[in-house]
TrEMBL record:
The lineage of its organism: Bacteria, Pseudomonadati, Bacteroidota, Cytophagia, Cytophagales. This is Nucleoid-associated protein E0F88_17930. Binds to DNA and alters its conformation. May be involved in regulation of gene expression, nucleoid organization and DNA protection. GO terms for cellular component: bacterial nucleoid; cytosol. Residues 8-35 form a coiled coil. The keyword Cytoplasm applies. Belongs to the YbaB/EbfC family. Homodimer. GO terms for molecular function: DNA binding.
Length: 115
């Protein structure tokens, strides 16, 4: 009987460790940065691991009221590409942060903890 209680206490301790490590890992996501471009480099978007757009660089030649729709499309394309590129970095960062605290369970997605 005491064995089960000790196992339960150990598991609760691991969950507290996991919560602390996840909080720390999430705080550090702001330092993971990825940049992507569209329009042959005329639009560059920079995002961080907290999925914030932190930079947008637009070539001055693109700033033309006649080409507003094209500019909007290029911005959306660059931002979406940057988000695609940062996703694997986020997963890798969270896996490293919780390494040793949780058993490696195939298919376990820790990204859900971020919401």
């Amino acid at each position: 009987m005491f064995g089960n209680m000790a196992d339960m206490m150990g598991m609760m301790g691991k969950m507290k460790d996991l919560q602390a490590k996840m909080k720390e890992a999430q705080d550090q996501l702001g330092t993971i940065i990825e940049t992507a471009e569209s329009g042959g480099g005329m639009v560059k978007a920079t995002v961080n691991g907290q999925k914030n757009l932190i930079g947008l660089d637009i070539d001055k030649d693109l700033v033309n009221p006649e080409d507003k729709e094209m500019l909007q499309d290029l911005i959306v394309a660059a931002v979406n590409k940057a988000y695609e590129r940062i996703e694997p970095k986020i997963k890798e960062h969270l896996q490293k942060a919780t390494d040793g605290v949780l058993p490696n369970i195939p298919g376990l997605d820790l990204g859900g903890f971020m919401k």
